[in-house]
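Might I ask for a little of your time on a matter of protein folding? Here, with my thanks, is the record as I have it:
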Amino acid sequence: MKEKIYANILKVFMGSAGAQGLWVLSMLIVSRLYTVEDLGIQQLFISGASLLASIATGRYELAITLPRYRFQAANLLIFAGALSVFGSLLIFIGIIVFNEEMIAASGLKKLDVIFMPLYAIEICWYMLSYAWLVREEKYAIASKGLILFPTGYLIMCIGLSGIKMPLSSLVLSILLARGFEILYYAHHIINDLHQYSGKLSLTGIVKLGNEYIDFPKYLMLGGFVDTAKNQVIPFLVAAFWGTIATGYYSLATQCLAAPAGLIAKSVGDVFRQEASSLYRKYHECEMLYRKTLRCCALYSCIICGLLFVLSPVIIPILFGNQWEEAGRYIQVLLPMTALGLISSPLSNVYIIARQQKKYIYIQFLGFVSSAIGIGVSGYSGFDIEIALIAWGILSIGVGSISIYGGIVVSRGRCY
């Protein structure tokens, strides 16, 4: 079992490493072709779409690894996919009605706001596809898709640079790149679903939706709050310190997302699949949880220690002197990121153990820490770096609670 886990982690790690490497390369090129403000606008678009996507699926993507039989998971996949389309259409209608207000609040172009629901659907289908491939242990296919996304983004960013259009070039680039990734996943998943065509039915789809009703009941609000604690930050930064500060923040978080993505995708996804299997058999996974905790802690200390020392020097060299401020943002965000690299992959244990109610409280605390750290600091007139430090201190406390609670839940006491 140990050899299998490590082999699966290696597969996802290689795909994640390639994807993150390409993403960093794309940032190197984008930072030269586009302005700080352009990157800030893209970040606001992604954050808005991510907030919408967090509620569009009803959080059913988190349940796909749980059913005992594959045909049940297939029914659940179809249900969640259809639900995401319906949810995004409702959101689109809301955006059309309140279009002017959203443009004024976000600072985005009209078409950028209108296309948010489309990117939200793409995010939903990406999450559902990836969850299915993890359940089926098709880590190689999942990893290739991870690489395809930044590759498509890089090509589109270069091709669209300098072209004037109603839709922002970076926004269109990320829309098309995510679409390429989804088409690749769909090609493989449709073949899988064809095997269970005789067991797919409207009755089965509705039955699975009702069986896992706790996911939208408890996790939809929790998922929105969990997403909001990070994705609302760019809007607060733009409101208090301007779009240029949002651009610096965007580059800093994308640089930090590289190591975070490696651990979350390679360790976290394999942990979710293996822990789900253990819970189905033994109703506990404490040994696996503690082993994964030690693994994440080791990676976190090494990666974040190196970034803290090197980021102020490397950022201006790689991206240009105009991005030097982003290097200071990275240093400020690193302590919070270090703990997040540990707590984020392990938080899957709350879902696996059906402890959604408990996780909602942790997610709400995370959102409050964001609102207080950034919102109160900005309203009080403090510098953005002070605001990021305040947010980081509060987030470290929330992450520690999440890790300790995960240890208790992994013992199966609350199953």
